[in-house]
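WARN no homologs supplied; continuing
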Amino acid sequence: MAETIFWIAALACAVGEIAILRSIIAQRRAQNVGPAHSGSPLSEVLWGILPAIALAVLLGATWRRIEARANHMQMHHGSHQMTTVSASRFAH
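OK structure emitted
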């Protein structure tokens, strides 16, 4: 279940970041036609890309934590099953 929620959230974040970057590009094109320029193109692109990079790092760390938890749960349940099997052998 955690993986499904993660991938839905990651997809939503990717769609949002793409929309932000498209908005920056569209705004730049519209400003090139008009007389007013707000900021440097580099700063606008950086403010669009830096959050995407930070989000990618956060999503990567979250995915590693989900995988670590899944591996821990498999090891924990696996050792519990082995203990139960071993105990049942001695009980008979």
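DSSP finds two helices and no strands in the chain.
OK
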